[in-house]
Every structure is written in structure tokens, then in C-alpha cells.
Amino acid sequence: MKLPKLENWVKTRDSLRLALEPLRSARLEGTSELPNALHHALFPHFAGARTGPLSFGGELFLDYTTQKIVFRQNEKKVFEVPLAGYSQKYLFQQTAEEFKKLNINISPYKDKVESGEELDINPEHAEKYAQLQFRVFNAMARARGHFFGVQTPISIWPHGFDLSTVWFPGGADESRDPHMNFGFSPGYAGIDEPYLYFYAWPVPQGLLETELPMGGFWYKDWATPTAVILLSSFAGSENPDREITKIFLDSYWEVSPKLSG
Predict the structure, then answer these.
(1) pLDDT 10s digits, 48-104
(2) Which residues fall within 8 angstroms of residue 100, CB to CB, at 6 or more apart?
(3) Does residue 163 sit within a domain?
């Protein structure tokens, strides 16, 4: 089955990214500090994003398909806040007010809740992205099941709205130990369409000479040179989900032996 097509959806993408911040704030309130900043990470859900279980009970969801933030406890909905008509600031304020009724206080993470512009979400685009994100997540998980060694969960990072997992040949600290990062972005930092990516740190000798599949290219404007494979290069193929798994798995087998643990 072909991947969903997303055209002229930048406003929806950016609005969904802004709507993740109440989830990050709830997670920071309800999760202890974790290695590799994973206390900031959210997790993919078939309809959007989730915080995972929180220490004060329950879980907060961002449902792309209904465009609502939903808090559940014991599998029952406790409250919901619609995104329509709200700015990021007001969305956070309304979510915080609902938590306050439950004697739970969440605070914005530093200056991340800052947009006063009304969120602009096309429901069709949001639903298509929920489908795309979850299909990519499942394809990534199939590849990750073949990796040896320590790995981080496949997480959603609110800043870039990307899915990402890190693999370590030895150690488990992203700031000092060799690793590979495998991810999927809906478009970010100069690349305005969905793409797969991976990078290796420290950069192994000869890495940038590695031939990339599906017309992929090395993007060198970030801190670490990153392989980029646009989804549009294979989204219409007979089995794009299998292609995603193969791209990540082939990259792992090609590059991982060049990293020293």
C-alpha cells in the first residue's frame, strides 16, 4: 500500500509540533530524569503521540485524528482540550487548568510555550500524518529488532517532531559513546518534506563516500553529517513499508562495523 501523500500541509505539521509542548511539560512533571534526555521524549501512538505512564497516574495523548489533547486514567477519559481555535499558549493554559482541577501542576518547559498564533490544522492532513507516522514507526521497529546492543526507544522529540532511536556498539551515553541515530522527520531545518535519516558519531572514516539508496544524499549543514532519504523517492512503490525497514537495516549493517565501542 502506498504511503499517504502530504502536500501543502506545512501549517498542519507546524501546528501539531507546537501542540506537543503540553505533553512534554506533563512528562517532565511526571517522569524522573532519564539518560540521553529521554524524560523529554514522547512516544508514537496509532492516532498521534503519548507521554507514557506518568508518576501522578494516567497518560496524556495528542490525538492528531480528532485534533484534541486527551488525559486518561485507568483507561477512562478524564478531560480533553480541543486544538481548534487555540494558540499554543492558550492550549497549554487550558491543559494546565484541567490538571489543576486534579491537584496536578504542570509548568511550561523553559521558553518552549511561546507561540500566540492560532493553530491552523487541516483535519485530513492531520489524519494522514497519524497514519504515516505509525507506519514508519512500525517499519523502524522491524529494522531495530535486528540491531545488537543497547538501543533507546523509538521516541518523538517535540523540538523537531521527529521519530528517533539511538543504537550503541558499546556504552549508552549519547554525549560520549559512539552511536548511530536512525530517524524520520516530517520536514525540518531546510528540508521541507518528510524524510528518513541516519548519522554516525564520531563520523567513521570514509562514511560520506557511502552510497545511499533511493537517491539519498548527505546533508552537511547540521552538527554531524546526516544521510537523508526523501520519502517521496519511494512512497509510491509496491511496498514502501518494507523499503523503510530495508533502508535502516542496510545502513546499520553497512556503517555499524566502522564504529568502535
Answers:
(1) 999 999 999 999 999 999 999 999 999 899 999 999 999 999 999 999 999 999 999
(2) none
(3) yes
Beta pairing partners, 241: none
Residues 47 and 74 sit within 8 Å (Cβ to Cβ): no
Nearest to 241 by CA among 146, 259, 97, 249: 249
Nearest to 169 by CA among 253, 252, 261: 261
C-alpha cell at 17: 509540533
Does pTM surpass 0.90? Answer: yes
Q: Tell me whether residue 217 is in a domain.
A: yes
Please report whether residue 107 resides in a domain.
no
Residue 142 CA to residue 190 CA, distance in Å, equals 29
Q: Look up the domain containing 62 and give its range.
A: 10-101
Contact 118, 87 (CB under 8 A): yes
> Can you read off the three cell numbers belonging to residue 35?
539518560
Task: Name the strand (E) or helix (H) holding 16.
Answer: helix 10-19
Residues 26 and 83 in one domain: yes
